[in-house]
């Protein structure tokens, strides 16, 4: 993905003010095959409606 293609949706700070979360939207990304999970990724989802995530701020943004 080209960083310039990302559109910032919002920037939020965690309640303890230690982290900033930048939520971006990207154009569709074409790829061959399936997504491959590794040590950093436990699941990849394409979502079309709100879902519960592991992190409160992420759930709120979704």
Give the arrangement of secondary structure elements.
Blueprint (H helix, E strand, L loop, with lengths): L6 E7 L6 E6 L30 H6 L1
Antiparallel strand pairs: 1-2
Kindly describe this structure.
Helices cover 10% and strands 21% of the residues. A hairpin with a 6-residue loop joins β1 and β2. The two termini are 21 Å apart. It has one domain (3-61). It contains one helix and two strands. It has a two-stranded antiparallel ribbon. It has 62 residues and is mainly β.
What can be said about this structure in brief?
The chain has one domain. 10% of the residues lie in helices and 21% in strands. The chain contains 1 helix and 2 strands.
Task: Using brief descriptors, characterize the structure shown.
21% strand; 62 residues; two-stranded antiparallel sheet; mainly beta; 2 strands; globular
Mean pLDDT: 85
Form type:
globular
Q: What percent of the residues sit in helical stretches (DSSP H or I)?
A: under 10%
The overall number of domains is 1
Low-confidence stretches: none
Number of helices: 1
Strand order in the sheet with the most strands: 1-2
Based on secondary structure, the structural category is mainly beta
């Amino acid at each position: 993905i080209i960083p310039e293609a990302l559109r910032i949706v919002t920037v939020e700070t965690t309640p303890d003010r230690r982290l900033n979360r930048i939520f971006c939207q990207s154009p569709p990304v074409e790829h061959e095959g399936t997504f491959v999970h590794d040590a950093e990724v436990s699941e990849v989802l394409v979502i079309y409606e709100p879902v519960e995530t592991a992190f409160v701020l992420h759930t709120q943004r979704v």
